Amino acid sequence: MTRATIKDVSRVAGVSIKTVSRVLNKERYVSDDMRQKVEEAVARLNYHPSLAARTLAGRRSFQIGLIHDNPSPYYIFNMQAGVGQRCREANFRMIIQPCDINSPGLVDDIGALIDQAQLDGIIMTPPVTDVGTALAELFRRKIPVVRVQPGTDLTATSAVYIDNVQAADDMTAYLISLGHRRIGLVTGHANYFASGQRLTGYRQALQRAGIGFDAALIHPGQFDFQSGAAAAEALFALPEPPTAIFASSDEMAAGVLAAAHRMGISVPDQLSVAGFDDTDLAQVVWPSLTTIRQPIRDLGYAAADLLLEFGETIERRQLPHELIVRGSTAAPKG
Amino acid sequence: MTRATIKDVSRVAGVSIKTVSRVLNKERYVSDDMRQKVEEAVARLNYHPSLAARTLAGRRSFQIGLIHDNPSPYYIFNMQAGVGQRCREANFRMIIQPCDINSPGLVDDIGALIDQAQLDGIIMTPPVTDVGTALAELFRRKIPVVRVQPGTDLTATSAVYIDNVQAADDMTAYLISLGHRRIGLVTGHANYFASGQRLTGYRQALQRAGIGFDAALIHPGQFDFQSGAAAAEALFALPEPPTAIFASSDEMAAGVLAAAHRMGISVPDQLSVAGFDDTDLAQVVWPSLTTIRQPIRDLGYAAADLLLEFGETIERRQLPHELIVRGSTAAPKG
DNA sequence: GGCCCTGCTGACCACGCTGTCTGCTTTGGC
DNA sequence: GCCAAAGCAGACAGCGTGGTCAGCAGGGCC
Q: Is the entire prediction scored with pTM above 0.85?
């Protein structure tokens, strides 16, 4: 038994091939009578149109690409889930393309992907969003692009994002409201534009509260567990250590927790710890993390939505974040 | 500027279209002279063959599907990384299909995927591996299938797996060697065949050490954090609680840790905790988890390898696991 | 020298669908 | 009641490849 083709459907329905095609593509000018006959035949034969043939004959491939270079399984998983759901709704397919932003072959790889699969659009996540050569290649091919949390050339493509400045401000203000005055900040990788934005939000909240900025309290990290632990150790070693540490990712916050455990500093009694992202990690460590919920799945869904609804037209959409308070933060004692 | 086609290549190289096709597909009967001319033209035009056209004209689509219904981002991420790498090496593409094993549309969804994309093969991960109706649909279509860690019909398809019995035996034996006699076991979801295998390994190690089996020490879980915490609380409440708890996943082990923290039980002094999988979680919680490293990425790579190398021929491959000792286990005190 | 076999190349068609264009029928406005 | 416009259906070409088959050259055999 071989699979049914559009010919089989047209024969069973007693109409022309083109009419079947019209029904499948929801084109105008098909009578209800015809439409019904075709739909019955499709259901009876369990017919599914060949993507290859549609792509070859038509202008669309019904496929979009998701390009990422992000080490966090949680981020990728949720991103895929969001993009994937929107794709399913539109009967599109999603092609995943992991890449390495430091690889010299990056641009060629992306070009080959688009050529081979004839993608209808591209979604990029940070930090690939800010690789100029890759962006240029996409523009050259005039393919619709949506970037998630882009850092540069904000008006160049469609984009979805959260307000990183406000989010960091919210968390900092919350820690201040608990009574903290010396708040350590573990920043993210410099490649991520969001890192700088979060620093801005942090400073903004301090200033509003009339607390002076102390550069010694800022420590660079790489978004990962190790760098969080290292940053915590450096901050604890200060002459006047912080009573709270705000890490720019949950992974780094987990590193801070581990360092505190090792050094016998109890959380949240002696030290408050806050993260960013609300990955599943946040609820799995002990104590569970106060953090900023970043709606990664929704960002993915929105990115796919922009691509499918607007195509080349440039649109942008900002999604809300949320402050999630859990057990890792408390008022400083004394 | 539109993309180059095989026609352009043939014109530039001064040969027929078919000869270009032969070079691309590494067919026999092409002289070195011709091959070189074609390769130069391909490079000069930066030509990439259209997947759609190849699929339509030929018997292969150069695409394989990865079907999963697994809630763990870490598992999926690494699985994809392994399969993806092997695909890249073979210039194949990987189509991700998340699914819901409880959905009535499961079989239709899988059928539609294969029909639409004309996949050359399918990789399945647990628990989809053991859904009889889905397997039957794949057999009906005579499509090559590789299952990862299948639980049923072991000889029906190609498969890759680790020795779950031995792995659980190894961990249990290790805990016994530390001096533990009462060892709690938090099993996994009943849908996963591996859960039963791990119980077998646990019993096997106990028996070899001459320790009696106590059913009260076995507690069912769902592989997730919550059920791990709940199981730990139940086990602590026993008249004679365990001195060690072996959880069938790192997530559940993290739940055990959290419950212990909440109840003021120190790990590993008063309680040893062991996990399974060696996900990145294992190193992020405190104390870091003693666990069994399951080579998920390698399993994915091997699965894709079997598919690409052997096609319909049934092959199986067992990969090694490894006992990873970290800070969450120690000798029982007293 | 005629034969077949192997190595190599190209002409041509088919794959399953969409885009275009043609032509017929119905509707609506005066 | 006539004509233009809108509604509708189908014939046909072509998308960019791979498969089939025919054809040609050269070498080894009888």
A: yes
